[in-house]
Design goal:
mainly alpha, 4 strands
Length: 183
């Protein structure tokens, strides 16, 4: 698939729609109903190893990012595939608080930058204390078949010891519930 940078350079609604439809078709053909996309960061630093160098941004212009990401989101929604705008508050370009009230999703909690510094249990505690609601465990660098059970046990222990409150967990549950389709 073309990168977001290539699509943004074309800045054509028809091109963006066709590109997004191809992506969504790939996702729905295997049963995926959530895509951690689009990247809505602006390419303010072309040498950024996380955005610019990977061509993950539609543009350095806000109007191009908004126009193309809006089309991408619409195509996903038409197919009942949820999206997750990223990155909040941005990869180093945010100038203030983003007052976001929806569910907040982590990146891979087993990423070496996290696990080597804090360890899994402390990283989970810190993520929940910071307000994250959904914790992603790619479970690929070192496979752990008990990762879910051990993480749940850790969270229960954090509540039992008073480091986290049940109210804090309830806040996450309420935000995650906003992602569920109405019954």
């Amino acid at each position: 698939m073309k990168s977001q940078a290539e699509i943004g350079a074309a800045n054509s609604p028809a091109t963006t729609r066709t590109w997004a439809e191809g992506m969504v078709e790939s996702l729905t053909s295997i049963g995926v109903n959530l895509n951690y996309a689009p990247v809505v960061d602006m390419n303010v630093n072309p040498s950024s190893p996380a955005i610019g160098m990977l061509q993950r941004s539609f543009s350095d212009r806000a109007d191009v990012v908004v126009r193309n990401s809006t089309i991408e989101i619409e195509v996903h929604r038409e197919a009942d595939v949820k999206t997750s705008l990223k990155h909040s508050p941005g990869s180093g370009s945010a100038t203030g608080n983003t007052d976001f009230n929806g569910p907040v999703v982590s990146d891979d909690m087993q990423a070496v930058a996290i696990s080597s510094r804090y360890g899994r249990d402390e990283a989970v505690a810190m993520a929940l204390e910071a307000g994250l609601d959904l914790l992603v465990f790619a479970n690929q660098q070192t496979y752990d078949p008990r990762i879910v059970d051990e993480t749940i046990d850790n969270i229960v222990n954090l509540v039992r010891t008073g480091r986290l409150t049940e109210e804090r967990i309830d806040q996450s549950v309420a935000r995650v519930d906003t992602l569920r389709p109405p019954c």
